[in-house]
Amino acid sequence: MLALPPALPPSPTPLPPLPSPPLPTTLPPALGTIVSHNVPPYSRAGLYKDLAELRELLSEYRENSQGNAGLRPVIVGVLERTGLWGDCPWPSSFPSSSSSSLPSSSEKQAGRQQVEREGSLTVEEAEVVDPDLFDAYTGILSSYLGVLEQRLFSEGLHVLGQRPTPSQLLQYLDAYFEGDPSLPPSLLRAVVGMETPLEVEGKVLLGRLLQRLRSSSSSSLFSLSSSSSSSTYGGEEEEEDWGEGGKEGVLRALEGGERAPARHWYNSLSKEEQYALTLFRPVDLIRFYSLQIKRALGDAEARKRLEEEVAVAWGTLEETERKEEGAKEGGVKDKVVEALEIKRLLEQNTDELSSLLKGLSGQYILPGVGGDLLRDGRGVLPTGRNIHALDPYRLPSPGAWARGQEAVRKILEQHKEGRGEGGAEWPETVAVMLWGLDVIKTRGESVAILLALVGARPVKEATGRVVRYELVPLKELGRPRIDVLASLSGIFRDSFSNVVDLLDDLFERAAEAEGESEEENYIKKHARKLQAQGEERPTARLFSNPAGDFGSLVNERVGSGEWEQEEELGETWAGRNSFSFGKGERERGVRREGVLRELLATTGRIVQEIDSVEYGMTDIQEYYANTGEELDEGGEEGGREAERD
Hints:
The protein has helices at 49-63, 71-82, 114-119, 123-128, 131-150, 166-176, 185-192, 197-215, 246-256, 271-276, 282-296, 300-325, 332-346, 351-360, 373-376, 398-418, 436-442, 445-454, 474-477, 490-495, 497-511, 522-532, 554-560, 566-576, 593-601, 621-638; strands at 42-44, 152-154, 367-369, 386-388, 429-434, 456-460, 466-471, 483-488, 542-544, 579-581, 588-591, 603-607, 643-644. By secondary structure, it is α/β, with parallel strands linked by helices. α15 (373-376) links the parallel β3 and β4.
């Protein structure tokens, strides 16, 4: 009989589990590595459908505006159909018709608002409009279509670690050297290794010449068929003298020798071959290759003419470079060398995948500067680097400062053009978005925009660091100081605290500037009004999410569908972005909703700086979650629609 093991004692009653600590809404900052990658190839927007039709109509109309007067209503109809009146409005300085009374067919339009009459034309009005005014407008419209057609955008997606194809390399270089007359398309095609028009023309020409060498006498060597040209190239007939090596030697020299059309990289070409790449017209190409063939046949005169032509062309080029640039910089040779270097660096994006694997295994990744190729130059290449940003104590950079000044000039011009009759000449408040990554990529362009609106400039110490933003005298500024409502992203707020302190100090000094009236200084005007309303800190202008928190939560509400009216999203944005930041520990996220709403009520324009052609306003959800809702909330507070730039 088997003995059973003793029974196990009963297990004790398990204790209830300890409550788990609540998860933080935001994770604390941690160490990490950012591996850069390339952007997709750039492409031109082009024109299509109605826009292409409009371009053709404008071209035909402008050839003979009097004879094609019947096209005016057709052009206006296309403008109405495409909605281009909003992008390219009829100038408010232009009357809608050449007479005070409209035709009876358009009298029903008399009830339209005046602003709409100034912004567009009806088909009926187009029939009686002043021809000179319409001609002037078609010039404006044609220029706008040209800009629209050449606008860059990202084509497709970038595959991590995949080397760009020659056609993609050409797209990158074409965008980088946009508008540079010293780098024609044929040169860029040669740089990336694509067949150039010169090579195509040369191959056709050499094929015909070689065929004649094999099948005919030398007397017809340079008389090409009528399919290529009606002229005779090479001048007088040649005698039956093939020179040393005979006919076969000439054939070898043409087909495989040093005189054959070169397909090497530009920096390995001779000056003669480099000069040949600058020729475009078929007549010039044929003449050039005819001289080369004559030289191969032993013609001393052809050799001399060819050498003189190349020497004069290259010498003139170098002299032009010296005069215009004072050095090589900007010359064709240096531009081609730069293009070759960019091509080499772009082809190194295979490092993206290898660097990612190194990072995942804890290995060292080479550092590199972050940025955009078109904006920041080739220094951002190659990709696949552990990118670093910039010195926050040197914002804005000189280049960003110049771009910011130009942007503000255009913003204020647009405000004047769109204000309508009786509108204010200057916006009292402009809302500016300050986003951390944008500031890093542009070296502080949005900060420069803010400073230019206020009328201030950076002051640097001997080391080049910015220590203060000083006010520009009103006499030098030539306009009022415009108040700015700055909306800070969490990254900007935490990464550029020194800039936050300097900007806060700037607004305090602007509100107390001596000798400036409220009509000359909108910051002072609004600060006094807020002070009279009992607001504790009337100079607060830098707003963000609560300290240590990120995001407006608008994306979350849109994604979950937890909203009914647009006003609800605007209230969510305002509630999350009403925290003021500035100098000292006491101003690190203090809720000042009254100041925010008062500034929103006077906001006339909202500026969102986009740092790359890689994306637009509709491509990133943070744009509608912040810029869009600030635009909506500003309109609600002010009782009118703010404008976005």
